[in-house]
Design goal:
Layout (H helix, E strand, L loop, with lengths): L27 H4 L3 H22 L1 H10 L9 H7 L5 H11 L16 E4 L9 E4 L4 H12 L7 E6 L17 E6 L5 H10 L4 E5 L1 H13 L4 H4 L5 E4 L6 H8 L4 E8 L3 E5 L6 E3 L4 E6 L13 E8 L10 E10 L11 E7 L4 E3 L2 E3 L1 H9 L9 E5 L3 E2 L2 E7 L6 H16 L3 E7 H5 L10 E3 L1
Parallel strand pairs: 3-4, 3-5, 5-6, 6-7, 14-17, 16-20, 18-19
Antiparallel strand pairs: 1-2, 7-8, 8-9, 9-13, 10-11, 11-12, 12-13, 14-15, 16-18
Bound molecules: zinc ion.
């Protein structure tokens, strides 16, 4: 059976059989599919999908009926892009509230068929339930991702885990015999993480966040451990949760470990860097990606390279994530990657609503990251934009410091100077102890934009 023909290819996450360990590809025929064929594949998936989601998803039916669209109207990707209404988190929340449906009208299978209910991380609001069948796109995508970064059967991977998103259940590397070692995702667990890596000669870490990386760095210093020795068996570590800063990447690489950034689009489809580190591959046999103009919300042409991501989960048997407006701004590259894969590469820039306009400039958290990290006391990159109103004359930042309190005024002045020089906007910085900001985390990241 070709893996092009079925939405669920059994427990191997897309490949018909586990490939030879020397192959860089988990499923070469899919991962290197020429883009024209990939588009035809997506078109077939959408044709298969529209009747099912219209029939089974209450929210889809409601939105389409309001827009006067029926499945019969959708005969191509062009029809799909121009006729099907977009949905967003507010639509899902509203449906959940009105209909007392925990899945917000997205579930397309009977609830008793579900294997796991996970949730989103809830950084910016109440967590949203995520329904999973035994076979699901997150699991298929993760199998491919883990293979892509070099994890192979029988290897041990230390997995600092959080329970949201379905916990270990979405771990596609189990499908090819990778052996996970679970620990809690908490800076308090750093000694256990270090011990597990050494005891089991782990070859990988999945998944690290900035609080964990800083915790490991400090623990190694306090125990006079050389991270290169601690992580000698470890080839790769995966980072996720928020944008990866240059300082965090180089810190992990100083341990002799290659760091791979991962994220997800719309909480359903995982994205992961390959060894080229030129953006994260989004598997387009699992998801259709579209871009909107961040300022106007208008649909951008198919070859656009920057915008707000709209995603459709085209292979998910359980959830009708149909033209879901993610609120995430990204740049995308559809050129064939040097790794040989043809699937689009995504570089997230931040949340659309996290943008603030200061003195006429649109500023995202990523715009100030470098200036904060450049100061030694604030190199952990713990900061928040404090938004008094959507447009401001001055950029207000709250920044966490690991240094002594008497240096706070000088640190504030230094960051203000750097930001004004880099961005050309006035800036006012409040420096607070790191701990005050870390307490706000869920715990792998902190809210980057808060209201005054
Ligand atoms: Zn690549």
């Amino acid at each position: 059976m070709s893996s092009l023909q079925a939405p669920a290819n059994g427990a191997t996450g897309g490949a018909d059989v586990v490939p030879d360990s020397g192959s860089p590809f988990w499923d070469e025929s899919i991962e290197t599919l020429p883009r024209q064929e990939l588009r035809r594949f997506q078109e077939r998936r959408i044709a298969d999908m529209v009747s099912r989601v219209y029939e089974m998803s209450g929210l889809v039916r409601e939105k389409w009926q309001a827009a006067g669209v029926t499945p019969a109207d959708i005969t191509s990707i062009d029809d799909y892009r121009t006729l099907v209404p977009v949905m967003d988190q507010d639509d899902i929340r509203s449906y959940r509230h009105r209909r007392q449906d925990p899945f917000g009208g997205l579930l397309t299978r009977p609830a008793e068929e579900l294997t796991v209910v996970g949730t989103t991380s809830g950084t910016t609001g109440r967590p949203t339930p995520l329904p999973y069948l035994d076979q699901n796109p997150t699991r298929w995508g993760q199998a491919r991702d883990m293979w892509m970064i070099g994890v192979r059967p029988g290897e041990h991977v230390v997995r600092p885990l959080f329970v949201f998103r379905g916990g270990h259940f979405a771990d596609g590397s189990l499908d090819f015999g990778c052996v996970p070692i679970y620990v809690d995702h908490s800076p308090l667990e750093v000694p256990s993480i270090v011990e597990a890596v050494q005891r089991f000669q782990a070859t990988g870490l999945f998944l690290l966040s900035a609080p964990l990386i800083n915790g490991i760095d400090e623990y190694c210093r306090s125990q006079a451990l050389d991270p290169r020795t601690v992580f000698a068996s470890c080839r790769s570590a995966v980072f996720g949760g928020e944008p990866l800063s240059d300082r965090t990447r180089s810190l992990v690489e100083s341990w002799g470990v290659e760091l791979f950034e991962m994220s997800s689009v719309g909480d359903i489809c995982p994205t992961m860097e390959c060894s080229e580190h030129q953006g994260m591959h989004l598997w387009e046999d699992l998801a259709l990606l579209e871009l909107l103009d961040p300022a106007t919300g208008e649909l951008l042409p198919e070859d656009a390279t920057h915008g707000e991501m709209v995603v459709t989960s085209i292979s998910d048997p359980a959830t009708a994530l149909v033209r879901f407006r993610t609120g995430d701004i990204a740049t995308v590259d559809r050129g064939t990657c040097r790794c040989g894969r043809t699937h689009v590469r995504v570089k997230p820039m931040g949340r659309a609503k996290d943008g603030v306009v200061v003195a006429g400039r649109h500023i995202l958290p990523i715009s100030v990251w470098g200036a904060v990290e450049a100061c030694r006391d604030t190199e952990r990159g713990l900061f928040q934009i404090v938004r008094a109103s959507p447009t401001m004359d001055e950029l207000n930042l709250r920044v966490g410091s690991s240094g002594p309190e008497e240096r706070f005024p000088a640190v504030a002045a230094e960051i203000e100077r750097r930001i004004t020089a880099e961005l050309g906007v006035p800036c006012a910085v409040e420096v607070v102890p790191d701990e005050r900001l870390l307490r706000l985390g869920p715990p792998h990241k902190i809210p980057r934009v808060v209201h005054a």
